UniProtKB/TrEMBL annotation:
<dbReference type="InterPro" id="IPR006089">
    <property type="entry name" value="Acyl-CoA_DH_CS"/>
</dbReference>
<keyword id="KW-0274">FAD</keyword>
<feature type="domain" description="Acyl-CoA dehydrogenase/oxidase N-terminal">
    <location>
        <begin position="7"/>
        <end position="119"/>
    </location>
</feature>
<dbReference type="InterPro" id="IPR037069">
    <property type="entry name" value="AcylCoA_DH/ox_N_sf"/>
</dbReference>
<dbReference type="InterPro" id="IPR009075">
    <property type="entry name" value="AcylCo_DH/oxidase_C"/>
</dbReference>
<dbReference type="Pfam" id="PF02771">
    <property type="entry name" value="Acyl-CoA_dh_N"/>
</dbReference>
<dbReference type="Pfam" id="PF02770">
    <property type="entry name" value="Acyl-CoA_dh_M"/>
</dbReference>
<comment type="similarity">
    <text>Belongs to the acyl-CoA dehydrogenase family.</text>
</comment>
<feature type="domain" description="Acyl-CoA dehydrogenase/oxidase C-terminal">
    <location>
        <begin position="235"/>
        <end position="383"/>
    </location>
</feature>
<feature type="domain" description="Acyl-CoA oxidase/dehydrogenase middle">
    <location>
        <begin position="123"/>
        <end position="223"/>
    </location>
</feature>
<dbReference type="InterPro" id="IPR009100">
    <property type="entry name" value="AcylCoA_DH/oxidase_NM_dom_sf"/>
</dbReference>
<dbReference type="InterPro" id="IPR006091">
    <property type="entry name" value="Acyl-CoA_Oxase/DH_mid-dom"/>
</dbReference>
<keyword id="KW-0560">Oxidoreductase</keyword>
<protein>
    <submittedName>
        <fullName>Acyl-CoA dehydrogenase family protein</fullName>
    </submittedName>
</protein>
<keyword id="KW-0285">Flavoprotein</keyword>
<dbReference type="InterPro" id="IPR036250">
    <property type="entry name" value="AcylCo_DH-like_C"/>
</dbReference>
<dbReference type="InterPro" id="IPR046373">
    <property type="entry name" value="Acyl-CoA_Oxase/DH_mid-dom_sf"/>
</dbReference>
Length: 385
C-alpha cells in the first residue's frame, strides 16, 4: 500500500537525517551506550541541523512550520538505524508545546532562540516518587514570596528524561492546596533554570532500555524561581498538562510502530545471512510465516500511526483516539519485536545486536505517557462504559 502521509520535503529531510546518523551517530553509538547518555555537544549538532526549530516561528530562528511529520521521519530513521538521539526527543515533543502555548511574548524572546540552537536544552518534570501516574497527588510546592518577586520551590521529581543535560526544566508544582471538589486544582508550571541555587540532580537512573537518554532524579531546596518564569496562569497546570497529552501519546505510538518496522528489517537481514543445517534460516517455512505475520502487524500499525499523525496535524486528534493509537501500536511493537528477537536465537540476547537493544528500549512504551491500562480506561470512557 502506498503511503500518502509524506511529501518530497519530508523525503529530502529523511535523506539528510539518514546521512547524519551514519556519519555522526552510528560510529560512536556504542560509546554512548556504555556511558548511559549522549554527550551534551551532540545536541549542538542537532541544533545546527535545524531539528529543534522546525515548529518554532521564524522570528525566533525556527522554520515556522506547524507539523509533526518531520518528527515522524526522525522516529523512523533513528529506529531504522537502531539508535536514539539521547534525551532530545523530550526537548521538542514535550517541552516545546508548553513554551508555544503558554509563554508570553517576552518569555518567547528569552526562551526560543536558545531552544532552537540547543544552547538551552529543556525537559519536563512531572512525575514524583510515590505518585506515578497520579499527577494530582504531587507534593512539590512553589510558594510566592512576600514581596511577590519569586516563588520558592521545594520537592523532588523522578524519571525525568533529559534531566542530566537540561538547562531549563518545566517543573509542575503546587501553588495552592487541592479543593474538596477538585484535587487537580492548584498545580502550576514553571520554566526553572537548572543553574539556580538549591536545584540539584540526583542519581542518573540505571534503566532497562533507552540507555543513551539521560534520565534523572531532581531535587529542589528553596529554589527561587522568578515570577517571570511562571508558564501560563497559576493553578491551571493540570489543565495544561492534559492539553498536550494527545501529541505525547501520538509520539509514543509512532515511535513504537517505527521500532516494530525496524525489528522486521533487522530480523530479515539476520535470517538471510545466518545459516543453519546448511541453509539460510530464511529458507525455513517457520521463518517465512513468522516474518509474514510480523509484517502484517506492522502494516496495520503504520496505518493507525499515520492516521493519528494526520489527525494531530489537523488539530483533530482526540484524547481517546490518541489513547487507542498508543495502545494498539505499543502492543503490536511488543509482539513483533519479541518474535523478531526469537528469530535471532541466542544472538538476539546480545546487546551488540540492535534487536536486543530495541527489545529493551521498546518495553517502556506501554508504561510512560500513561500505561496501557490507563489507555484502556480512556477508550472505555469514550465508549460510554
Amino acid at each position: 500500500m502506498r503511503r500518502t502521509v509524506f511529501n518530497e520535503d519530508h523525503e529530502a529531510f529523511r535523506e539528510t537525517i539518514r546521512a547524519f546518523i551514519e556519519a555522526e551517530v552510528v560510529p560512536v553509538y556504542d560509546e554512548w551506550f556504555a556511558a548511559g547518555q549522549a554527550p551534551r555537544e551532540f545536541y549542538d549538532k542537532l541544533g545546527e541541523l535545524g531539528i529543534f526549530g522546525i515548529n518554532v516561528p521564524e522570528e525566533f530562528g525556527g522554520a515556522g512550520l506547524d507539523t509533526h511529520k518531520f518528527e515522524a521521519v526522525l522516529y523512523e530513521e533513528t529506529s531504522r538505524a537502531g539508535v536514539q538521539f539521547g534525551g532530545s526527543g523530550v526537548h521538542v515533543l514535550l517541552a516545546l508545546p508548553y513554551i508555544k502555548m503558554l509563554s508570553t511574548d517576552e518569555q518567547k524572546k528569552r526562551y526560543l532562540p536558545k531552544f532552537v540552537t540547543g544552547e538551552e536544552m529543556w525537559a519536563l518534570a512531572m512525575t514524583e516518587p510515590g505518585t506515578g501516574s497520579d499527577v494530582a497527588g504531587m507534593k512539590t510546592t512553589a510558594k510566592l514570596s512576600e514581596d511577590g518577586t519569586h516563588y520558592v520551590l521545594n520537592g523532588s521529581k523522578t524519571f525525568i528524561t533529559g534531566g542530566v543535560h537540561a538547562d531549563r526544566v518545566i517543573v509542575c508544582a503546587r501553588t495552592s492546596a487541592p479543593t474538596a471538589e477538585d484535587r487537580r486544582h492548584g498545580i502550576s508550571l514553571f520554566a526553572v533554570d537548572t543553574k539556580s541555587e538549591g536545584y540539584s540532580i540526583g542519581r542518573k537512573l540505571d534503566k532497562l532500555g533507552l540507555r543513551t537518554s539521560d534520565t534523572a532524579e531532581l531535587a529542589f531546596v528553596d529554589v527561587k524561581v522568578p515570577v517571570e518564569d511562571l508558564l501560563g496562569e497559576e493553578n491551571k497546570g493540570f489543565y495544561y498538562l492534559g492539553h498536550n497529552l494527545a501529541s505525547e501519546r501520538w509520539g509514543i505510538a509512532f515511535g513504537a510502530y517505527a521500532q516494530a518496522k525496524a525489528a522486521v528489517r533487522f530480523a530479515q537481514q539476520y535470517v538471510t545471512d545466518r545459516t543453519v543445517f546448511g541453509k539460510p534460516v530464511a529458507h525455513f517455512q517457520n521463518t517465512k510465516f513468522e516474518l509474514a505475520a510480523c509484517q502484517a502487524e506492522v502494516d496495520a500499525a503504520e496505518a493507525v500511526a499515520d492516521r493519528a499523525l494526520e489527525a494531530l496535524d489537523a488539530g483533530e486528534l482526540t484524547p481517546a483516539e490518541a489513547a487507542s493509537a498508543k495502545l494498539f501500536c505499543t502492543e503490536v511493537a511488543h509482539r513483533v519485536i519479541d518474535r523478531c528477537l526469537q528469530l535471532h536465537g541466542g544472538y538476539g540476547y546480545m546487546n551488540e545486536y540492535p534487536i536486543a537493544r530495541l527489545y529493551a528500549d521498546n518495553r517502556v512504551n506501554r508504561i510512560y505517557g500513561g500505561t496501557s491500562e490507563i489507555m484502556k480506561s480512556i477508550i472505555a470512557k469514550s465508549m460510554g462504559l
